[in-house]
């Protein structure tokens, strides 16, 4: 068997080939990430008399072209979490030598030690990697959305208390929400209470038509009646209008991002062969991602091939 260790970097990689921990078949050499470079390496490895396994770290996106080229050339390729390689102790080097050549040798020795349990790379791994990255961004944006929503509600408690509780319509695909659109126009209780009921009903009807919401005359009457019972903490002013509408603008922008991520995650996940099965078990994209990546993580941990990355959710999350 021949273990090929690859230290990947931007546009080039260092490659070392071992037959055993003490038998170096090919000393570390560099290849460019070009069609010619990949073809040259594939030719060298194809001439080896025995099974070849190529191991590399999945460092950002740098490894993808290398992994895909070698996979397409018919070789077994494995992309490993960088921390698993970093924490690997092979018992050879006492001093920690940090060079591309030394790293390529260490990865090759790692491949020999973990030969039987190396996870095989497939083009699907790229989809899973993109999905995992997208999910992290989705979580970050969702947290920001919650903070901005709470901020808007706090501002409304001063100008239009309870306005956020009028509507419970679901979030639209573009990220818009009815209560947020409502306070963008009616940002102070006096925008409603200081006009006649008939005038507000007509204005509310036009607002619903403009934003694509169903109009109900009784809802408009109830909104007007309730507004006349409220007592704002701050007067209607240009400053108040600016604060509320800017908060609305910020919330809408992040909410739109959240829904964009949600749609893209569903598109990516639907390409995975296990999508229908796991979705049938969980019933939702968020649960799908939590359970799916939880099982992947637990399985690799059992094999010693997973190390939690900084800032990554733990199993309990």
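^ structure tokens above, recovered residues below v
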């Amino acid at each position: 068997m021949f273990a090929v260790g690859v230290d990947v970097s931007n546009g080039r990689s260092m490659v070392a080939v071992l037959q055993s921990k003490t038998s170096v078949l090919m000393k570390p050499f560099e290849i460019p990430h070009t069609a010619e470079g990949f073809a040259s390496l594939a030719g060298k490895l194809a001439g080896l008399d025995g099974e070849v396994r190529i191991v590399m770290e999945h460092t950002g996106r740098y490894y993808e072209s290398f992994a895909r080229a070698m996979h397409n050339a018919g070789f077994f390729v494995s992309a490993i979490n960088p921390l698993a390689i970093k924490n690997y102790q092979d018992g050879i080097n006492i001093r920690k030598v940090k060079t591309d050549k030394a790293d390529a040798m260490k990865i090759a020795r790692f491949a020999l030690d973990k030969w039987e349990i190396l996870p095989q790379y497939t083009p699907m791994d790229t989809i899973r990697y993109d999905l995992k990255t997208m999910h992290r961004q989705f979580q970050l944006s969702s947290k920001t959305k919650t903070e901005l929503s709470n901020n808007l509600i706090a501002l409304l408690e001063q100008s239009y208390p309870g306005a956020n509780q009028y509507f419970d319509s679901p979030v639209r695909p573009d990220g818009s929400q009815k209560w947020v659109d409502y306070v963008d126009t009616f940002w102070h209780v006096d925008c409603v209470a200081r006009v006649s009921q008939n005038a507000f009903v007509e204005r509310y009807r036009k607002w619903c038509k403009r934003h694509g919401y169903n109009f109900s005359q009784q809802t408009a009457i109830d909104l007007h009646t309730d507004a006349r019972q409220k007592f704002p903490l701050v007067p209607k002013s240009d400053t108040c209008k600016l604060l509320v509408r800017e908060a609305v603008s910020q919330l809408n922008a992040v909410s739109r991002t959240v829904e964009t991520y949600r749609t893209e995650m569903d598109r990516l996940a639907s390409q995975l062969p296990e999508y229908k099965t796991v979705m049938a078990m969980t019933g939702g994209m968020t649960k799908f991602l939590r359970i799916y990546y939880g099982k992947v993580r637990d399985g690799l941990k059992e094999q010693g091939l997973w190390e939690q990355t900084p800032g990554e959710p733990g199993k309990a999350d």
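The mean pLDDT is 85.
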